[in-house]
Amino acid sequence: MNGRLLRRGYTTGTCAAAAAGAATWILLHQGTCGTWQLTTPKGIHLSLAVMDASFTAHTASCGVRKDAGDDPDVTNGMVVYATVCRTGKAGIRIEGGQGVGRVTKPGLDQPVGEAAINSGPRKMIQRECQAVCAEGAYTGGLLVRISIPGGAEVAARTFNPRVGITGGISVLGTSGIVEPMSEKAYADTIRVELNQIRSADTPHKREVIFTIGNMGEAFVRDTLGLSLEAHVKCSNFIGEALASAAELGFKRILLVGHIGKLVKLGMGMVNTHSSQGDARIETLICCALEAGASLALLHAIQDCVTTDAALEVLRQGSLLPQTMHILGKRIDATLRRHLPPEMERAFICFDKKLSLPDRRGAIICQSPHADTILEVLKHG
Hints:
With 380 residues, the protein is of the alpha/beta class. The chain is 38% helix and 21% strand.
C-alpha cells in the first residue's frame, strides 16, 4: 500500500489466549507481568503487552489490546480481558463474559447457548493455561472468563446479529494472525505471483490453481494431490485474479474453494468478502427452488445461518445432489462471463462436513471438465 508492505495484526483469539495465559501466571505467582509471549497456530512468535493486571489469592485478571495491523477491522483497539479463578474441579473451563456474544442458532462453530469463542481460540487458551499450570505444578482447576468491554456495541456493526450471535462479538482466529485485506495491494500481489508462474521454466507455466484461503490450499495439496508449484491464493478477490490470469495469457485455470465462499459466485459475485454482501443462503434458496424444493424446505433453508446447516437441510430433504448440480452450473456461468472463451476453466467446490456418495472426499460440486483439468495438472 503506497509502496510499503501491509502490517499484519493478531486476532481476538490470540488476545484472549495471551490474556488467559498471563492471568493464570499472575494468579499462580501472585505478581504482575508486563508482557506475554506465545506462538500462534501459524507458528509466529508474539510478545504482547499485558494491561490492567490485578489479583487476589483466588482470582486474577488482565487484558491484551487487539491490533489488527493494516486490516480495517472493527475490533481493532479493543481490549480482550481474561479473568482466571481457581476451582476445586480439575480441568480448564472457558466462559464468555461481558461483550462476548452468545450462540442462539445451530450451525455455528459452537453449540447453541455457548459463548461465541470458536474452537481455535479455545485450544489456544487451553494451551497457554495448561503450560503455566504445568510449570507451576498446579493440579487444581481453573475457570477462564473472557470479556471484551464495548463488544455488544461493536457487534451491531458486524454480521453477528444476522447469523444468530447476540450480546457481543465473536472470539475468532484459526491462524492467530490477521492478514491485511487491502484490495489494491492484494490484487497487485496476485499479479506478481501470476507473473512469476508465467516466467518459470516449468511445464505448467500457463496454468494456475486459484484457492481462496488456507482451507482451499490444504484441500488442493492433501485431497486433490496437486502440486502447489502453480498455485496462487486469491483470497476474496476472485474477480481480480480471473482478470489478471486472462490478461497475462494463461491457458488454463482451476478455482478451488469452500462452499461458504464459492456459493456467492452462484449469484454472480466475484468479490466474496462479507463487506461486499452476503448472498449465501439466498443463492442456495434459488438453487433449491429450481431443484423442486417445497415451501417448507425453502423456509428451513432460510432459517439457517451457515452453508453447512443449509446443506444438512438439503441432505435431509433428499435434494442435495440436485441443488449442488444447479449451483455448479451457476458458478460455471459466472466464470464463463469473466474469462475469454479460449481459456479452459474449471472449479471445485468442497465442504468440510458433507460429501456426496458418488464423489471423492468432500467435493460437493464441480465443473463438467474439472476432472480433465485435474489430470492435466497432475500429469501434464
